[in-house]
Amino acid sequence: MTILLHRTNTRSLTTTAVINLLVVHGIFLLTVPFRITYYVKRKWSFGFPFCKIISVSIHIHIYLAFIFYVAMLIIRYISYFKQKDKIEFYRKLHSVVASAAVWIIIILVMFPLVYLQYGNGEDNKFTEKCFHFHKAINKPYVRGLNYFVVVVIVGIVCLLLAVQIFIIVKIVKKLKKSALDHQEFWAQLKSLFFILVMVICFFPYHMFRFYYIQYKEECYYYNEIFLGITALSCVDLLSFAGQTYFQKVLKHMTCTLRCTY
């Protein structure tokens, strides 16, 4: 993916968002072996501070990935409705500065804030357990925040899905049978794919969150399973590598059907 993106226009806002999303996925994947080691050995051997870092990383990955998904889709929608091929920075340096500013905020503000608040009041600091950070949910403001985040994410994804379906239907009506021959149609299918990634990977965890808040003690391992499903979003960028092949196959099938009938 790094090689493919290096060959594209790095001034594009969409490409810049994709590169940052790739970095988010890459950093998160570095934490996965520690989780696997813990569940295989049933023992945490890396200390409580590092346990908090690994535990909070999957949550940060969810919401950073979600933010970059939304940013990419909004950029694509603006480009479509304003009839522009691409929305770009004036110079490559501007994209670098914008990305650096985002990561400075994440590293110096977002991560320390989440790390300091995450796991406060837990009594397992000197045990060999890890990822048992659920007692904070007993606090009313934490429960309220959880409900708010779930409603916001589900609402935003549903809104984006409605807009995307509207755009695809409009393009199909305009191009009709020749839709498969136009890059504009395939670009919108790629946007739809990112929305489906959010629905498949993020919805199960957030919808289960309603139940988990009420019965957190009994549902700890189920919560871990749904968290694991969110990690599948890391395969999202395969759409860039697989789109060309899928496009050729679908066009060939369509052509075969036309020639047959």
UniProtKB/TrEMBL annotation:
Residues 1-211 form the G-protein coupled receptors family 1 profile domain. The keyword Transmembrane helix applies. Gene3D superfamilies: Rhodopsin 7-helix transmembrane proteins. The chain crosses the membrane at residues 12-33, 53-75, 96-118, 147-172, 192-213, 225-246. It comes from the Eukaryota. It is a multi-pass membrane protein. Its main location: membrane. It is found in: Membrane. SUPFAM superfamilies: Family A G protein-coupled receptor-like. It holds the Pfam family 7tm_1. InterPro entries: GP183-like, GPCR_Rhodpsn, GPCR_Rhodpsn_7TM. Keywords: G-protein coupled receptor, Membrane, Receptor, Transducer, Transmembrane, Transmembrane helix. This is G-protein coupled receptors family 1 profile domain-containing protein.
